[in-house]
Amino acid sequence: MPSADEILQMLQKEWQDLQPLLPTYAHLIASALIPIYAGAHASLTRPSSAAKPSKDKKKTAQDAESTEDSDEEPESKIEGLTAWDALWFPLAAGLALSSLYFLIKWLEDPAILNTILNWYLAVFGVIGMAQMIRDSIEVVLSFVFPSKYLHEGQIWKFDDERRVVVSQKDPSLSHDSPLPGRLSKLTLPPFLAHYLWGLRSPLSSICIQMNLQRSSKTHIHMNYTTFISVPLAIAITLYYNLVAKPWYLTNIQGFAFVYNALQMISPSTSSTGTLILAALFFYDIYFVFFTPLMVTVATKLDIPAKLLFPRPPGPDADPAKQSLGPDADPAKQSLSMLGLGDLVLPGMMIGFALRLDLYLFYLGKQTKKSVLESEDAPTV
Question: Among 143, 178, 200, 354, which residue carries the largest CB count within 10 Å?
């Protein structure tokens, strides 16, 4: 049995070995949590069974038409996964993984396969990155130029056309400051107030209505953030495919995939989600730990289907080799890796729980309203 001094020396040695890896672990945890948090919250929409917010009946038809698009709630685009999907997931994933593995072995040099897959993923990558970049810009700008804000127990709404801010509770209350919250109490010079109102105007979205069918209409909302995010997403994709593949550009594309995937797929019930996680648990045991399929495909294919994290190089590592491409030696890599499936699958359950919590919130409000109405109803 080791003595106390020997145990302390062992712990000290383990701590010294762990210290250089702490930044890598912190980077990995943050990179896993941020897209899950953002994607889960971006998937929130008011439940279809919830009552729509009341509108002011005194509004004119012109005012109602002008605010119809701005007040319109985004429609849910989530596709619910069934129990059959839970069983089909590991089978389809295993078939795709096995096909890629044997194709890599047959090609010997996966450069052609890397090129094909990278350009194939580039199409979806541009769309996903543009959406993520646009949403990120709008979230940051919403703190400076919100459409509504709560102050002194009232909700105030900006009217960019008339350049006034009106209280929703009492429309007779208004002010002309372009700043929200307590900043609205500041007395601004006329030229500065005019300039800030001018900055708010480009934030108003342009709605393009497309009649795809007689019974359905598609609305596309664009503002100047769209014309920033789309070229930026295209530039990132072209640089990644034509110039170089640094780890941070791989991660940006991976973040976009996770962010959009959490807004598109979700288990229909908690039991379905549990079944999906259980089925893919056994999938991981076989394809990751029992066979070399997953490791081979992940290290030979240099595509944005994973997250990469710089870590301290080993004693024999080559610092110049920062890519998981075919010319790199996986045994000497100074990059840690995390598959996107490790983010999307638990993120689906987190998003499902968040939407369930929102549904229960609206259900509680509806139940409370029904109870109060029944108490106020006259008895016969």
Answer: 178
